[in-house]
Amino acid sequence: MQRFGQVIGLHDETWDEYCKVHEGPGVRDLLAIANIRNFSIFLQRMPDGLLYEFAYFEYVGDDFVRDMEWLNAQPRHREWLQLCDPMQRPLPGAEGWTRMRPIYFNP
Amino acid sequence: MQRFGQVIGLHDETWDEYCKVHEGPGVRDLLAIANIRNFSIFLQRMPDGLLYEFAYFEYVGDDFVRDMEWLNAQPRHREWLQLCDPMQRPLPGAEGWTRMRPIYFNP
Fold first, then answer.
1. pTM confidence score
2. Residue B54 and residue A22: Cβ atoms within 8 Å?
3. If you average pLDDT over every residue of chain B, what do you get?
């Protein structure tokens, strides 16, 4: 099992809507098929005054690249990204989520 | 089971040492007794140019306050905090870790 942490910014003017769309089932079923478990999202306004979203998830498959390609090819997942992307603000220089550096895992 | 996400700043000049001390066993055994599972730490330099540490963990007990009181009373845990605290930089207005707002959990 691999643990991942990632971060992206969120626009202030749409973060209420962002929270609201995440109350629904979203694409949880597709994430599960792609071997993703325990996807957890947290919001935080950081000292720079901007909103950020932090995600933790676990990957339990044996080919992460192949599973992400499958996920990104699913029409419902593409629709989900089209819904969420405009509400997110990648870190400067990033195109989407920024993968964070893991330093400590307590089994 | 309750999921937690929290954030704190790290001083640039000691973050190598911070990573190094986390290579050892630390207080993992005490966290386990205090019903904490899956403690995962990630580092990220944010757009404000500063280093931050993001932690995800799960609490599987039935009295979080009591378990944290027990943990904080353990001499080895106090020594661990005395080691780590000077390397951490709480967010403005915070005294230690800042609990982040959860918005989405995928079972």
1. 0.93
2. no
3. 95
**Which chain B residue is nearest to residue A42, measuring alpha carbons?**
B102
Residue A105 lies in a domain: no
In a domain, A96, yes or no: yes
CATH number, domain at A81?
3.30.70.100
DSSP B5-44: EEEEEE-GGGHHHHHHHTTS-TTHHHHHHTTEEEEEEEEE
Q: Classify each residue of A61-76 as buried b or exposed e, where b means 16 or more C-beta atoms within 10 Å of its C-beta.
A: beeeeebeebbeeeee
Per the structure, the count of domains in chain A is: 1
Quick one: pLDDT at residue A107?
Answer: 62
Probe site for chain A from B15, B87, B103 (most A CB atoms < 10 A): B103
Within a domain: residue A65? Answer: yes
Query: What's the domain range around A43?
Result: 2-100
8 Å CB contact of B54 and A7? yes
Q: Collect all residues of chain A within an 8 Å Cβ-Cβ radius of residue B28.
A: 106-107
- pLDDT for A57-78, tens place per residue? 999 999 999 999 999 999 999 9
